[in-house]
Amino acid sequence: MLRFDRVSKVYNVGSFGSDRLTAVREADFEVRRGEVVALIGESGSGKSTLGKMALRIASVSQGTITCDGTDISTLRGNRRLKDYYRRVQGVFQDPFSSYNPVFKADRVFAMVRGEYYRDVPDAQWRAKVHAALETVRLDPQQILGKYPHQLSGGQLQRLLIARALLLDIDYLVADEIISMLDASTRIDVLNLLGDLKARGLGILFITHDLALGNYISDETVIVHKGSIVERGRTEKVFGDPLHPYTKKLLSSVPQFHKKWEEVEAELKAREAADTRIRDYHLPVGQEPPAQLFEADEGHFVQPFPHGARASA
Amino acid sequence: MTAAQPLPDPLAGPEGTAAALPEAPRREALYFALRNKKLLIGSAIVGSLLLLGILAPFFFQNGPNERIAPPGLEPSAQYWFGTTQFGQDIFVQFAHGVRSTFLVGVLGGGIGAVIGMTVGFVAGYKGGWIDEILNMITNVVLVLPTLAVLLIIAAYLESRGIVMQSLFIGLTTWPWAARAIRSQALSLSSRDYVDLARLSGFRTHKIILRDIAPNMSSYLFMTFILLFGGSVLAAAGLDFVGLGPTDGMSLGLMMHQAVKWGALQLGVWWWFVPPGLGITAIVGSLYIMNVGLDEVFNPKLREM
Amino acid sequence: MSLKVSDLRVYYRTLRGDVHALDGPTFTLADGEIMGLAGESGSGKSTLSKSLIRLDGRMRYVGGSVELDGTEVPIWDDAAMNRFRFKEISIIPQYSMSAMNPTRKIGVMIAELLESRGVRFKTVREELHRRLELVGLDTEVLKRYPIELSGGMKQRVVMVLSTILDPSLLIADEVTSALDVSTQRAVAEMLVEFRDRRFVKSMVVVTHDISLVYQIADSIMVMYAGRLAEKAPARTIIEAPRHPYTRMLISALPEVGVTYAEQRLTGIPGSPPGLLDPPKGCRFRARCPLASDECATEPPFVEVTPDHHVACWKAE
Prior knowledge:
The structure holds 3 protein chains of 3 kinds. By secondary structure, chain A is of the alpha/beta class. Chain A is built from 11 helices and 14 strands. Chain B has one domain: MetI-like fold. Chain B has 14 helices and no strands. In chain B, helix 2 runs antiparallel to helix 14 (269-297) and helix 11 packs parallel to helix 12 (251-260). Chain B starts with 16 loop residues before the first helix and ends in a 7-residue tail after the last helix. In chain B, 46% of the residues are buried. Chain C is α/β, with parallel strands linked by helices. In chain C, a hairpin with a 2-residue loop joins strand 12 (302-305) and strand 13 (308-310). An 8-stranded mixed sheet of chain C has the order 7-8-9-4-10-11-13-12, sandwiched between helices. In chain C, strands 1, 2, 3, 5 and 6 form a 5-stranded antiparallel sheet that branches. In chain C, helix 4 (151-162) packs parallel to helix 5 and helix 5 packs parallel to helix 6 (210-216).
């Protein structure tokens, strides 16, 4: 289990670090193996920072991130860090900037081999690479030996997933890996994540696109301005949104079968009939706590001033 | 803001560009390099002077300071550049001078480049307090009155060789290079592929050498060329004011001697014109090469 | 008929030859019509929208014509186009928000831009204020610097500015794609309002997001590999598409409001053809499950039912 335990990220800004900027505030959730957790938020919400902290690319200011019980901030030294990266890997948003443009694309495999599988004989390594490529449904003949700009965005992202698979990972942090891809190919990469989940991988799927989160995830976490405002089973969060911000997102995302006005009207009607709201409303003007309220089994919401509309 | 006109973006969005980018970046650079007049002319001049400096001294039996001919001869078939007031062959001096000028450039520029790159890369990639300390050192060296320090140090040393001179120059000219490389490294180190290298377990030095530096190779090359030219000029300046090598010969030293022995007043123009032109030709061609390289590596400056 | 494009061909010059980025689309845009122009990268949608304003250095006009309100638009003549740009045809370019000069106040920038187009700032100042208020901006924004405005605010300023002279045609190039979901909707709805208030006569909304244009457009035109695939009223494109590409594309898009559980969507296998040397016949042929021998001939873009145009032999 990859667990975020009241994790905060504070940046010191200004001269001599005189000002503080809270990017993430007491985020509390977990990613279990065999499960996809969608971390949904808009730009500046802190969602990518959470992913970077899990990958040890950014440091944790307060709280702990544990991977199967081990606090990852205690992993000092190159060897222990490498052991961690053997189990937890990441794929990033821009497939073109994930590859060093002066090298061939399959260098990402060579890098893994140089650090982890130095002693593996060539033939065995080749078989391992081919197996990983097969999992992500890429044809080795078409991929190996090419430069990044000769491959499509979808191929590049799959190649990165294959790279992660070479390491026998348990958890994958996928940060907006779909958003730069074309509509006709993104669904295949998304389905691939579904396959990996079925193989027992835990996936933290970071996205701004609610439709993608709804399609692939088991659990959904909605972040807004650094705080988690709602989390729970995906069908609950999308089917029975509680926080005004979640509702606002859902009424803004364009759909095929309904126009915006219809969606908004439905949400309004549901809200009027909702009696639970008094359980987690706050007096107007009170700062919302970071601690979430369990409104329904496994469905948490950050208390909010009643009648408040989320600010954009 | 250009509300009514599309931006003249050379890579016009994702559309068409995937197909429009021709070959691998390196081959493309070579294609433009071989068609860039500035680069070709610059490297031709530098190349021929370099050959002269390397090869010519092997064909002379006499050293540059030996008096072998009647003094004050005008350029002729026997003494191509004429002779000095002491009967030294100016062409022999010139060839040796060019050789040492290149030596100063390579050594001085090389030392400056190594220090500048090391400081710049570490500061840019590591950031934080390491960056702040390195920045401070850089700024201190940057504001040192370089020439004055060189004058003082040079004056204290009894025997001065070209290597020593290059070392002084290299140790004082790196700061601008460090700052330039730092800012480049800083922007490159936030790229996704650098994060990916970290996720692959790469250590810092490996990331800098394998992932960041190769992406700046053109930039680093240009930095070296500018440091090279700067060293040549600095050395010429030192030589001219009489702080040049006590043994051997350099272009700056030739000019120093010419002025010292009144070549100007005596109208012995062939004594000071060749070294002056030599320095100008080397540094000028290097800068022209630099502009050419800039055009080769920067697609926006390329002429279609 | 507001806009009439016939067999327009614009290629990109590269070292290896011409990229056939826009290969002969023919279509019309009615008065008051908002048309969504959808396609993936490399479909030619951006090339089409750019050609209607200005051909950049690498774009080469090859053939075809553009007519706006009955007047020929000389897109091959950069100087002659000045008569149309901004006044008759205006564009909100893709990265206009980040293209604002950070050292100029918004108001100064607008005044300069107008003057450079030969328009006295004074003559439009009142209208400018009125429209800024209409899009929910205080006229105070004119005294601010771009950095002080949020992305959504900047996008609205650009929208007001590019339509201030009531152009006949507005091209909105991916105007919402850099915005957050919650601002996206407001900006998209504003486009509709501009049309309703007759600030612009008709509009082309270029996007990769079909679900967004479905919300605001009257019609949707789908492009593929430099050619038109299908054009129809928005609802028809979503509910009864005829072109196999449109069908597969729409069924590949997940959306909210649907529970997927174990049910999987499928993408379109393969990738679009290279346009340096495009294949003969239908360009979707290699990825199309219905492809047969007749697809080796290029299918014409024909009206199969009123207002529904398709370029496919199988779409009878």
